[in-house]
Amino acid sequence: MKRLMAEVLTDEKFADNIIDILEPRFFEGCEPLPQMVQILKTAHEQDEVICNYETLRIRFLSSKAAESKIQRTLFLTTLSSIEELPLNDGYNIQKTGMSFCKRQAMRIMNEKALHIIETEGEESYYKCEDLMRKALELGDSKIDDINVFDNLDDVLADDFRNPIATGIQLLDEVMNGGLSRTELAILLAPLGVGKTTVTTKIANTAFNNNKKVVQMFFEDNPKVIKRKHLACWSEGKFSLNELSANKEEVKKIANEKMNASTGYLKLKKFPSLGTTPRDIKIYLRKLIARGERPDLIIIDYVDCMSPTSKVDDINVGEGNIMREIEMMLEEFNIAGWVATQGNRSSISSEVVDTNQMGGSLKKAQIGHFLLSIAKTMTQKETNLATFAVLKSRFGRDGLVFPDSIMNNGTLEIEFKADDNLEGLTHSEMVGRKQEAAQARVNVLMSEKFAEVKKSIENGVKNA
Question: Residue 84 to residues 81, 266, 279, 286, 332: CA-CA distances in angstroms?
């Protein structure tokens, strides 16, 4: 019963669905859980509030029951023990708890129906039918449809998305300011190109802009990620290899950045085998229960994750993972960047497209925004890359930014575009490459023609 209470206090959506059929009597013999349930129901019925640990604690301490030292100690000690419970297997706990409460509610309704039949006779049939129908509906998800004409001022506001910037100027312009809450962006790149460089740049910028950020990863060493952030804050002054030699100055810069931001920047490493969206959800719930709801999460990278429910088809599983992440962003009202690997053919490509995404194409279908990175060997040598906006539900897509600055040592990233400061379309980029190639051919042909002409002239002269 304590685990059920933990789910109610950490999962607001589940609590909203079960609160109507949750009754103190269901927890009799498990003191002080009946008292907790009563406080939860009162808060919901009178103030339309879904309590978490902190609000439940505050409401109890302001009640008359808290005047008793024994009751206060029992209540607070039990609540702390519930808060410390591991939130594993939450789906089954919620499913079992909901089923138990619905059965109890059905039993109560059945007793009421029996009493009506005994006191009012057969003409009470419709009353009983109505009671049973309501019992069957209890615990179902709330209706959350939306009237198109509600809150039009909010809909038409210029900043209705309130996006979180990436710190890459032209990318932010293409994204209409960045990524907004509940939106899911995907970063697609071959191995070794610099997915972590880009995600760290995005996390670093968000923190600098007073956002609460959680950067999750599976394979990197936390010290490496920390050093990347330090390189970001040095703004090109020190590369990763130069940080240690300039330790005191780097520490000073980092402390200044830390004190200037009202957000937070957390690194969370998960096991690279067996981590599911459910595990991430549990972690986020704990943060939210502590009053540390993030604005942005970054997952680097999704290919290391497993679906919450086992499936035989790998592609279906990958689609399920992305769908769970999307639903999680919606539930917690946060934004999310997810990195994913390109397939073998993406390694040598000048531009990476959706056909070169590793695994299931459902990942691209579910995401709201899709950005790819490509690097040829020449570009790797010169700290350049080609970025492509492959999909955007809130801006223009089909744009390519060839030979943009991407330095994995200093974490400097700057998109390069044409003279109009816009990205090229793929056909425009191909056309320009063809024009450049033809121009080189023309130069070579001109040089060759000049050599032949000179040779002929010399031959005539000698004759």
Answer: 5, 21, 16, 10, 21
